[in-house]
Amino acid sequence: MPSDTLDITLLGKAYSVACRPEDKDGLLAAVAFLDEKLNSLASRTGSSGEKLAVMTALNIAHEFLQFQRAGGFDMQAAKRRIGLVNARLDGILAQQEKLF
């Protein structure tokens, strides 16, 4: 699959990254999230450079693991529930069709 180059900015510094066209929106959302986290931690701690990057990565990893341990979002469970709702709707619609 061909990749394009996407220019991004983190902490005011420009980077070029490889990105498939279909992943562009997701990557831009990740860049915005990361830039906000970097700026937030930098303003609170006065850290910069490698230390700021490592501490931000550690904070994001910690938040992610807490989210997972708290149950997080279970995609398979959501798909099962959607399937059950669809089945119920199909049953109700089938009953309605018999009325007409």
What does this structure look like?
- There is one protein chain.
- This protein has about 100 residues and is α+β, with helices and mostly antiparallel strands.
- It has helices at about 25-45, 50-70, 75-100; strands spanning about 5-10, 15-20.
- A two-stranded antiparallel sheet has the order 1-2.
- The longest helix has 25 residues, at about 75-100.
- The chain is elongated and about 70 Å long.
Q: Could you tell me how far the N terminus lies from the C terminus, measured between alpha carbons in angstroms?
A: 51 Å
Number of helices: 3
Care to count the β-strands?
2
- Please identify the structural class as seen in this structure: alpha+beta
Q: Any idea what the radius of gyration is?
A: 22 Å
**Stretches where pLDDT falls below 50 for ≥5 residues?**
none
Shape: elongated
Order of neighbouring strands in the sheet with most strands: 1-2
- Quaternary assembly: single chain
DSSP helix fraction = 55-70%
Mean pLDDT: 87
Major beta sheet summary: 2 strands, antiparallel
Order of helices and strands: EEHHH
Percentage of β-strand residues: 5-15%
Protein topology:
Layout: E1 4-10, E2 13-19, H1 24-45, H2 49-69, H3 75-99
Antiparallel strand pairs: 1-2
Helix pairs in contact: 1-2
